[in-house]
Design goal:
Layout (H helix, E strand, L loop, with lengths): L9 H10 L4 H11 L5 E6 L4 E5 L4 H9 L8 H8 L5 E2 L6 H6 L1 H7 L4 E10 L5 E9 L7 H38 L4 E4 L5 E4 L10 E4 L3 E4 L2 H15 L6 E6 L5 E9 L13 E7 L8 H8 L3 H11 L4 H8 L3 H15 L4 H9 L7
Antiparallel strand pairs: 1-2, 1-5, 3-4, 4-5, 6-7, 6-12, 8-9, 10-11, 11-12
C-alpha cells in the first residue's frame, strides 16, 4: 500500500473530534495521509449556505471553494450526492474522464493547483445538512488503489457517527440558549442562516396569533410589515452584514404588542454543524408610559441622542421644542426622527409615538 499506516487509535480520535471540534483538522489530516492526499476537507452543505473544516495546508483551498462557489458549478458534486454510495469513491467513478476534463471544478479550480484526483464521500445528517468529505491527491501520485479505498470505507461509519454526534451536540447548545431566554420571560427561537428554526422555547406558544409555522421548519409573522423586516434582516445576516435588528410586531388590530429582536450569533469557525445564525427574541410591550432612554437604546439599537428624542416625543413634545431644549437645529432633530422611524420599523410619526408610549420593562 502506498500510504503510511495509522495507529489503531484513529477511531478514538474520530470520536474525540465529535465533542472537541478543534480536533477535526487533525483527524482530516490523518485520514488524508491514508488517502495519499495533500489533505482533507469536510464541507457542510445546505440549500442556503456552505461551511467547511479542513486539515492544515488545505484550509485556504476549502475557504476559496466556498467563497467562490465552486461547489455549485458543474455536475460533480450533485452527481456524487445522487449516487448515495455508502463509501468512498474516486472521481472517475462519478464522471467519465472526458466529462471530468470539462468539469469546471476540476478544469478551473483543482487542475491549476496540481490536483490530479479526488477521493470523496457524501452523506446526510439528521439535522438536514449534506456532508461532503474530500481528499485531494497530486497529479504525481496517480490513482488511489483499491486497498486505500477499502481502508477509508472501514472508517467511514465511525466518521458518519462522529459527525452526527457533533451536529446533535451543537443543536443542544441552541436549545439551551432558547431555554435561557425563557427563564428571563422572553419567547425566543434560534434560527439558521436560511431562517430554519433550530430550537424554540415554550413561551413562543403565547405568540400563536403573531407567529405562524410554515413548511420546512420555518416561521412567518402575521404582521406583514414586520415579516418583511424579518426577511430583510435574515438576508443581511446571510451576507454577513447583519447587526441587531429590532422592530415592532403588531396584532390583528394593528396594535404593537411585541418588539422583535433578531440577534446575530457569532460562532467560532469550528462550529459548522447545525449552525445557529441568530436568535429571534420577543420583548412584550406592557404598560403605557414614556420609556427610559436606556430601554429605548437596548430595544431598538439607536444612538443616545435618538433615544432622548424618542422619550421626548413619547412625552408629547414637538420637534421644534425638542430642538430648542437641546440647543440643536430643527433639521438635526428631524434627521434623528427619521432614524427612529427606520430603526423601529414605523411608517409615520404617530405610529412611532404610539409604539413608544406602549413600551415598558419586560415581564418578570
Amino acid at each position: 500500500m502506498e500510504t503510511m499506516e495509522s495507529g489503531p487509535d484513529i477511531v478514538d480520535r474520530i470520536y474525540a473530534a465529535s465533542v472537541v471540534p478543534e480536533q477535526w483538522a487533525d483527524v482530516l489530516h490523518e485520514l488524508g495521509e491514508i488517502a495519499g492526499a495533500t489533505g482533507g476537507s469536510l464541507f457542510v452543505v445546505t440549500p442556503e449556505h456552505q461551511h467547511s473544516m479542513a486539515s492544515r495546508g488545505v484550509g485556504d483551498r476549502a475557504d476559496r471553494a466556498i467563497r467562490e462557489r465552486w461547489l455549485q458549478r458543474g455536475q460533480l458534486i450533485r452527481r456524487a450526492a445522487a449516487m448515495q454510495h455508502p463509501g468512498f469513491v474516486l472521481d472517475h467513478e462519478i464522471m467519465t474522464p472526458a466529462e471530468l476534463e470539462e468539469e469546471p471544478l476540476y478544469r478551473d479550480f483543482w487542475r491549476p493547483q496540481g490536483i490530479g484526483q479526488v477521493v470523496s464521500t457524501n452523506f446526510v445528517v439528521p439535522t438536514g445538512e449534506t456532508i461532503a468529505i474530500t481528499f485531494t491527491r497530486l497529479l504525481a501520485k496517480g490513482s488511489a488503489d483499491r486497498a486505500t479505498i477499502e481502508r477509508l470505507d472501514a472508517l467511514r461509519p465511525h466518521i458518519a457517527r462522529a459527525v452526527i454526534l457533533s451536529a446533535r451536540l451543537q443543536l443542544e447548545h441552541a436549545r439551551a440558549a432558547s431555554q435561557t431566554l425563557a427563564a428571563l420571560g422572553l419567547p425566543a427561537l434560534v434560527l439558521s442562516g436560511g431562517g430554519k428554526v433550530l430550537a424554540v422555547n415554550q413561551l413562543v406558544e403565547t405568540l400563536a396569533g403573531q407567529v405562524v409555522w410554515r413548511g420546512a421548519d420555518r416561521i412567518a409573522l402575521t404582521d406583514k410589515h414586520a415579516d418583511r423586516l424579518l426577511r430583510q434582516a435574515l438576508e443581511r445576516l446571510a451576507q454577513l452584514e447583519g447587526a441587531v435588528r429590532s422592530f415592532p410586531v403588531r396584532d390583528v388590530e394593528g396594535i404593537a404588542t411585541q418588539v422583535a429582536h433578531l440577534v446575530p450569533i457569532r460562532l467560532a469557525a469550528r462550529d459548522i454543524f447545525a449552525r445557529s445564525a441568530a436568535a429571534l427574541v420577543f420583548s412584550p410591550i406592557t404598560r403605557p408610559q414614556a420609556p427610559p432612554v436606556e430601554l429605548v437604546q437596548s430595544l431598538f439599537d439607536v444612538t443616545p441622542a435618538e433615544a432622548r428624542v424618542a422619550r421626548a416625543l413619547a412625552a408629547g413634545r414637538k420637534v421644534g421644542s425638542i430642538a430648542s431644549e437641546r440647543g440643536v437645529s430643527v433639521n438635526t432633530v428631524r434627521t434623528q426622527v427619521r432614524g427612529l422611524l427606520d430603526k423601529t420599523g414605523s411608517r409615520r410619526l404617530t405610529d412611532l409615538v404610539a409604539l413608544l408610549n406602549g413600551i415598558g420593562p419586560p415581564r418578570p
